[in-house]
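[job 4471] stage=fold_predict status=RUNNING
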Amino acid sequence: MSKSYFITAIHTDSGKTLVSSIFTQALHADYWKPIQAGYPRDTDTVMKFVHNNKSRFHKEAYLLQAPMSPHAAARLEHIEIHLDNILMPRTENTLIVEGAGGILAPISDTQFVIDIAAKFKLEVILVCNIYLGSINHSLLTINELKRRKIKVKGIVFNGPENTETEDIILKHSGYPYLLRVKQEKKITQEVVNRYAIELMSTWSEK
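[job 4471] inference complete, writing structure tokens
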């Protein structure tokens, strides 16, 4: 049975969509963004960067207009997001599921983005981008994942290499290192494929 993975990050604009593209291409997986708030759609971006004959791209459960927190974007449209209405797409393929914002981005007054991963028992891939303060944000996110007993596949670092930052995050998380994505001047299919090949050189689904 194929596995499914939930890609989340330490905050918004951390590189989840690029990392989702890399994993979708590397695993020839399907892709699904359950909640999209704002345009352009992340699904369209991933479709642009992924090039294989196996990946399929599934429709959002909620497609919202405003680029803001899902619960706020939904409220503007007089919609209430219900976790019960978010149903896993039917596929026999590996599935990459991309979250919205960080793990505690609210989807309603009582539920958060990470509740999607918990509902479907998805293994998390955590994107930690590198900046001043990212150690604190990373370890807070990691502590919450552990508190919720969410299984984590590993960490992807996004940004300029900083071994001191990366080492302390890996040490205190206990999670495996999966990949480092550098600051690229331009993202293309070729760039995504290069990282996909790098990922597959060490990838294991155990």
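[job 4471] summary: Residues 125 and 153 are 6 Å apart (CA to CA).
[job 4471] exit 0
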